[in-house]
Amino acid sequence: xxxxxxxxxxxxxxxxxxxxxxxxxxxxxxxxxxxxxxxxxxxxxxxxxxxxxxxxxxxxxxxxxxxxxxxxxxxxxxxxxxxxxxxxxxxxxxxxxxxxxxxxxxxxx
Length: 109
Known about the structure:
By secondary structure, the chain is α+β, with helices and mostly antiparallel strands. Helix content is 48%, strand content 19%.
C-alpha cells in the first residue's frame, strides 16, 4: 500500500508512536534495543481496528537474556502508548520464515 493510501487506523497508530518518540527512544536505550522498525499492518499501511503495533528491534546477547529484556521493553512500551496491542520482537529470536516476512515489511520507526 502506498504511504498516501494508508488507512486512518495506520495513521493514528503512527501518530501515537511519533508523539511519544523521545520516551520510546529512552526505553529502547534502557533495554539495549537498537534499530527499531515497524512491521506488519502498520508498516504496510493497512492496519485496522484491533491491529497490533509490531516493533522489531536488535538486542545484543551480551546485555543479558534477550527474551526477558524484550518482554520488559514490550510491557513498558504498552504502558507508554496506553495500549496492550504492542508486540516487540528481537530480530535474533525470530524464526527464519517469520523473520523474512517481518524484514520484508519493516520500515524504520
